[in-house]
Amino acid sequence: MLIAKPYLLFLGDAPDPLAAKTAYGVARWRPEDCVGQFRLPGCQADTGLPEVSIDTAAALGARTLIVGVANRGGKLAAAWIPELLAALQAGLDLANGLHQRLADLPELAATADSLGRRLIDVRHPAGSFEVGTGQKRPGQRLLTVGTDCSTGKMYTTLALEREMRGRGFDADFRATGQTGILIAGAGVCVDAVVADFISGAVEALCPANAPDHWDLIEGQGSLFHPSFAGVSLGLLHGAQPDALVLCHEPTRPHLRGVPGYPLPDLAECIAANEAAARLTNPKARCIGVSINTAQLSATEAGRWLEDTQNRLGLPCVDPLRTGVAALVDRIAGLG
Amino acid sequence: MLIAKPYLLFLGDAPDPLAAKTAYGVARWRPEDCVGQFRLPGCQADTGLPEVSIDTAAALGARTLIVGVANRGGKLAAAWIPELLAALQAGLDLANGLHQRLADLPELAATADSLGRRLIDVRHPAGSFEVGTGQKRPGQRLLTVGTDCSTGKMYTTLALEREMRGRGFDADFRATGQTGILIAGAGVCVDAVVADFISGAVEALCPANAPDHWDLIEGQGSLFHPSFAGVSLGLLHGAQPDALVLCHEPTRPHLRGVPGYPLPDLAECIAANEAAARLTNPKARCIGVSINTAQLSATEAGRWLEDTQNRLGLPCVDPLRTGVAALVDRIAGLG
């Protein structure tokens, strides 16, 4: 699934920044791919990109409008439809990470069809996948894994891409969730793939590559999450990672969405991921830890990072506070 | 998904018994649910059930024709269509475990629609599932797990149901694959569920029940299979098994479909399944092993069972040679 660039980011009538977090993600990680943002009256989100109309965006060469806003329940709001139609008329494709499909709205489908535009619903994988083969393929691969869902795997993976590219590595972010796909312009929403094809879809996402090329694969869920561990394990096996980075958010009372399930111990979580990963890549090893310390004070965060680093004997970073240089130092030392 | 009983088993023009293994499975495990078999000229399979015409089957009260034959590539053969149409005309629903959908054949779809009959494609789960909650629910549950795919999990689970019911247990087979679903008349093809919902679909398949009721859940795949382990893990977490039975076929040179992947050691496989299962049920334990010794001589089989039993300290059976009484003895001693 390839989304044509550059983008116009549509923030709609987002009532707060959180509702537009997809737009913020794209603006943060791919500003060079965006001609600007387009907002409806009353919008309370702002990515800081130039404000442009749909026609101006088209004149600036925009190829795709990204629905960068989430409505309650993952629905497309009625107020957005006239603007989405206008974008199609102006020559743009539409790309959307919500549960509801653009293609399921008859007016959008008919207009796109008559104009030859694409409606790209990234949560609904198009095409079919093969069953995973487990066959070892060339190229280096890194996968972020988590103690839980929503611990910063996408953010960490993108930060690694930026740092590695900055140091001259040949490295590509590989997206496995809707926001990541809109950022990268390509990818597979692995939790939406039919169960039989999880590892096969991931094998297709990060295929054989040059021996010194790094695929940096966005992880999903956690081996310890009772709702989603199957996705995480299929992803781990399909990725054949040489390197793992464990992502953790230290202030949660329990795993996301499942009261009564404590967060796993970090060392135990690393050991379980390494053991499972070695089925398809015997060299798999965890090379560091990424902690999301947003809920902690600077002092607490520093203590957490230092304690964890000492306890595990692995570099321990917060991408936002410390950057990920320490992880890339470790990657540079692999071989 | 509930399939109306009794059944007419359709064997078509099966060129050999293996092509009709679904029909054999239903005839073996649910003969009381079958009014008979219907074969086309030249059919080389025979379940031993009475030979009946479609009209006779209808007169005997048959409610569903089961497509009990597999064509190359999982396709519905053109030669079967007139008979499938005749069955719809005679008042029967159609149920099918092949990849190709009955519902995708326009002639069948139109006829079923006009007559108000159901076309049941068990490989394609109907309806939607919730995300798994991991919440502990009452009732006892047993899951068969495997060193590999196709090691006898369905057969073992059905043998346990028969033995347990014979001893007065309140026990139900829960099907997770197409043949099992046609045998049970209900179930969920877990490998065809969207990845996000694997454990949730299994939670729905074997919901809360009476404290002394046993759900006997058909396993799929293996935690050690690089193509399918995600399915196996989601199934394990959703099942919340109190008891596990490991199924194994001892003569394979490698895991099914993936040369280079050796079969896991049995003790290691048990330990990995118990560790993973304990996320959602801390009491989970393996209570025995089921070996498919069909490829071994009686002497070799006996030695294999005895050696394995001594090595693992668990009852070790072959459902076909020894029955599963030793496993049910162990189940009876639980609690």
How many DSSP H or I helices of chain A? 11
CATH topology type of the largest domain in chain A = Rossmann fold
Identify the biggest protein-protein contact and residues per side. Answer: A-B, 35 and 35 residues
Unreliably modeled segments of chain A = none
> What structural class is derived from the secondary structure elements of chain A?
alpha/beta
| Cross-sheet strand order for the largest sheet of chain A | 7-8-6-9-10-11
Please provide the count of β strands of chain A.
11
Shape of chain A: globular
What is the architecture of the largest domain in chain A at the second tier of CATH? 3-Layer(aba) Sandwich
Domain count of chain A: the total is 2
- Name the CATH superfamily classification of the largest domain in chain A: P-loop containing nucleotide triphosphate hydrolases
Helix and strand sequence of chain A = EHEHEHEHEEHEHHEHEHEHEH
What would the average pLDDT of chain A be, to the nearest integer? 96
Termini gap of chain A: 32 Å
CATH class of the largest domain in chain A: Alpha Beta
Q: Oligomeric form of this entry?
A: homodimer
Give structural notes.
The first copy, chain A, is an alpha/beta fold and 335 residues long. Chain A folds into two domains: 7-121, NAD(P)-binding Rossmann-like Domain (Rossmann fold), CATH 3.40.50; 140-332, Rossmann fold, CATH 3.40.50.300. The first copy, chain A, has helices spanning 21-29, 54-59, 81-89, 106-115, 153-166, 178-184, 198-205, 229-239, 266-277, 298-312, 325-332; strands spanning 7-12, 34-39, 64-67, 93-96, 119-121, 140-146, 171-174, 214-217, 243-248, 285-291, 316-317. In chain A, the strands form two sheets. In chain A, strands 7-8-6-9-10-11 form a six-stranded parallel sheet, with helices on both faces. The radius of gyration of chain A is 20 Å and the shape is globular. In chain A, 57% of the residues are buried.
